[in-house]
Design goal:
The complex is a heterodimer of chains A (274) and B (297).
Chain A (H helix, E strand, L loop, with lengths): L2 H28 L4 H6 L8 H11 L2 H32 L3 H12 L5 H18 L8 H5 L6 H11 L5 H8 L4 H12 L1 H17 L2 H6 L8 H9 L6 H31 L4
Helix pairs in contact in A: 3-14, 4-8, 4-11, 8-11, 9-10, 11-14, 13-14
Chain B lengths: L7 H36 L2 E2 L6 E2 L3 H8 L1 H32 L7 H9 L6 H11 L5 H8 L13 H30 L2 H9 L4 H29 L3 H6 L11 H11 L4 H25 L5
Antiparallel strand pairs in B: 1-2
The chains are: A mainly alpha (274), B mainly alpha (297).
Amino acid sequence: MSNIKKVGMYVFLSVCAFISIFPFLWMLTSSTNVSADVTKGRILPGSHLFENIRNLFETVDISNALLNSAKVSISTTLLSLLIASLAGFGFEIYRSKARDAVFSILLLSMMIPFAAIMIPLFQMFGKISNVVPFVGIDTLSGVVLPTVVTAFLIFFFRQNAKMFPKDLLEAGRIDGLTEIGLFFKVFMPTMKTTYAAAGIITFMSSWNNYLWPLIVLQSPENQTVPLLISTLGSAYSPDYGMIMTAIVISTIPTALVFFFMQKHFVAGMTGSVK
Amino acid sequence: MSTAKKGMSIERKSNLTGWLFVSLAVIMIFVFYFYPMFQALLLSFKSGTGMNLQFTGIDNYKRLFSDITFITALKNTFIYLIIQVPIMIILALFISVLLNNSQLKLKGFFRTAIFLPAVTSLVAYSVIFKYLFATDGLVNKLLMNIHLIQTPIAWITDPFWAKVTIIIAITWRWTGYNMIFYLSSLQNIDNSIYEAARIDGASATRQFFGITIPLLKPIILFTSITSTIGTLQLFDEVVNITKGGPGNSTLSISQYIYNLSFKYSSDFGYAATVSYSIVVIIIILAFLQFKLAGDDK
């Protein structure tokens, strides 16, 4: 490669990286500045972080929103991984024509836009509310339930199960494991990378989910983090420093999950089993 | 996979086991996707406020074609789609090819940095963008400092620029996400193919269009379909950056459905009709994209 091309490549990638990172840097530094400085366009970090944090905790119940979001995302992720991987395993290991047909039908659900089903879902949970109040409208389980299983995740597990060494199953059967035992004791431990990748994807989308919680949750004490941020962000005279602090806090969980599991994530996306 | 032939009963048992493994997921997809989809279809023939709905036949569908707000939302969504998706996919492809270069240093840094936006919540980044792109915001200050513009651009409050802002925002958020898909597929391509091409004297451009693009076709198709569906469902950004304004100039279809259902005097029936328009569009576009990609899957 010629030197000019090489320089061009580095310049281009650096610009892309800068544009990608800049809003984060600005968010971080703004969380340490007072509102007036943020408005003036101050980019450098200030010394008002603790003041912003105090304001935030005094103005809104962010700890409660964080707790709600944690409950929702963790339960969604655990249920999701279990149910989708059971299905992915079932579809791939016990192949049959009928099940392959069902699988193709499930894939069609990926084409269904959420906006098209949100009203019937809202009505459905309204009806459920009358019977079982703790899973209906304005409950955290109501947020979790319809988002637990996605065809994408089933597809993802099935795709990865294709690379699962089948002779491990035979060996397990000879050792006297039941089929469900094979799943928990052989499949799950072998597919750690896949679970990690699927876990990151699910946790992030659940943590960040906005539209469904916006519809199904009503009382302030059930608010999740995105709902809180949205309310703060649309305030008439916003306290920028405080809002940026809220956004920083709301981003910490997903950022941590991402950085600790980044390796698994990329490996899982590539579909390799190591 | 020819394991020894087993008795019929074992096969039947294994068949039952198979159904048991997939049952929970299948039931949930039917209950939370297909059943509501069917309900929405029924709803789309009804009209009324709140839960008091009456069957009105195809009135809603007639209303759809003369509904100026709907047509505006449709137009906006298509503008996002036609401009944003190709820009993002080309950019993501280009970046991933650069990052796949074995001589590149700082690869990990570039990859992480460019992927980073995909980690943020849609609401959080939308709020940040709203402030960054405010008329007295940092972006204008920056552009004026380097003398690219003389007067500040009304990024949020001008109908044209508001659309541009939304497009910039979505591109920022999703390019890195799509890049990861391409990058992982690129890593699976056997390097010897490129070596052979190089020996044959193929230029980098020839290699890109002759080898990379054809081999990545399935994943490009996948990402363009998911991006299309994503764009048609655009909600969080528009609501949190421009609220659909100024006027209705950035209103998306999803936001209009939300407004019809939960903001204006709620009309679930008509909202369901509008939502079915997205379904029809998605089916048509997905079909076109499959055709365009040559239908080899």
